[in-house]
Amino acid sequence: RRKRTLTQYLQRFREFTSAMPDATVVLRSGSGEIEWFNSAAGRLLGLRAPQDVGQRIMNLVRHPIFTQYFHTAGFGDPIEFPSPVNEALMLAVSIVPYGREQLLLVARDNTRLHRLEEVRRDFVANVSHELRTPLTAILGFLETLCDDAEIDPEQRRRARNLMSQH
């Protein structure tokens, strides 16, 4: 009966970890050897079961940002880098120490957020450029009008019309 209960718990654990959208990997703290990972780790990090269990994560995820993050062992804020499986996917990865000499690596697909940030940056750059062009023209006309008192009325009218258009 006890064995059946443990088997049911294990089955439920496998079901909920398979349903998680984030990659989850359990590592040995000192060596970085993989003890366990869910199916999302296969999709996002390219891990394969059972051959990658026991392998060092550094041998399988070889991005310089990840390597530096792993060796700092401080594991502060999450880092971002492209997925080793698909360069178009941007992953946010964090590592958390837990238990006895274990680490929990969590990788989330941050592609949509990364693209939204790029769109925002492009939008701000375009708006800034579009505002600078007419403002430069207006400032040039204003400087001319203020500095040169002998401009004839026709040129003043033309400058006011052009400023108005900009």
Total number of strands: 5
Distance between the termini: 82 Å
**Cα gyration radius (Å):** 29 Å
Structural class comes to alpha+beta
Mean pLDDT: 86
Strand order of the largest sheet: 2-1-5-4-3
Describe this structure as you would to a colleague:
With 166 residues, the protein is α+β, with helices and mostly antiparallel strands. Helix content is 53%, strand content 19%. It has 6 helices and 5 strands; from the N terminus they run αββαααβββαα. The chain has a 5-stranded antiparallel beta sheet, sandwiched between helices. Helix 5 runs antiparallel to helix 6. The mean pLDDT is 86.
Task: Briefly say what this structure is.
This protein is of the alpha+beta class and 166 residues long. Helices cover 53% and strands 19% of the residues. The longest helix is centred in the C-terminal third of the chain and has 37 residues.
Q: Layout of SSEs?
A:
Layout: H1 2-19, E1 23-28, E2 34-37, H2 39-45, H3 57-60, H4 64-72, E3 79-82, E4 90-98, E5 102-109, H5 111-147, H6 153-165
Antiparallel strand pairs: 1-2, 1-5, 3-4, 4-5
Helix pairs in contact: 5-6
